[in-house]
Amino acid sequence: MLHNFGNGSDGAQPFSRFVEMGGMLYGTTGLGGANGIGTVYKMTLGGKEKVLYSFEGAASGCTPFAGLVVMKSLLYGTTFGGSGSRCASNGTIFRIASDGTESTLHAFTGGSGGANPYGGLVVVGKKLYGTTQNGGLHNAGTVFSIAP
Predict the structure, then answer these.
(1) Which of 3, 39, 44, 111 gives a 20 to 30 Å CA spacing to 136?
(2) Residue 75 has pLDDT above 70, yes or no
(3) How far apart are CA 84 and CA 111, in angstroms?
(4) Cα–Cα distance between 78 and 65 in angstroms, integer?
(5) pLDDT over 90 (residue 141)
(6) Nearest Cα residue to 88 out of 33, 12, 37
């Protein structure tokens, strides 16, 4: 056993796989962290974990169920979103540097623009591609691309 997550500041419920960058493992937790709504963390191969970013809800999103991808030494991912006072969001696409600096690239608004990206991102050339669970013409989801 390398690391046991609690429901505290180190995050909880790591739903997704790791990615490796520079000899470190990077991942997300769907819950936990400083605000209880998910984290991005890094871990040594020996199991020493450090939270890089705790999601804040609203514009930064919450509940990052999907994993991360690496593009040009930066990490990219999605948050699913949710409802409630801490997490009123339809999900986001975010970028995070290895030092924990986070930027929200896109906030989903629902409707034709899609909502609640549940799956991960794929890097193809200079774009990221993904899907949303909800929204679109028939509220049955969308496929999107973004050039970060």
Answers:
(1) 39
(2) yes
(3) 19
(4) 8
(5) yes
(6) 37
Band the pLDDT of 7: cuts 50, 70, 90: low
The span from the CA of 141 to the CA of 130, in Å, is 11
Please state the pTM of the whole predicted model.
0.94
Residues pairing with 39 in the sheet:
29, 54
Q: Give the residues across from 51 on adjacent strands.
A: 41
**For residue range 31-40, what is the model confidence (pLDDT) as tens digits?**
999 999 999 9
Q: Which amino acid is at 40?
A: V
**For residue 32, what are its two tokens?**
């936990």
Spatial neighbors of 78 by CB under 8 A, at least 6 apart, are: 61, 64, 65, 66, 91, 92, 93, 94, 117, 120, 121, 130
Instruction: Match 């623009």 to its residue by tokens.
Output: 113
The dihedral of CA 31, 66, 49, 41: what is its sign? negative
Helix/strand/coil for 8:
coil
CB neighbourhood size of 25 (10 A)? 18
φ/ψ of residue 60, rounded to 5: -85, -15
Mean pLDDT taken over the chain = 93
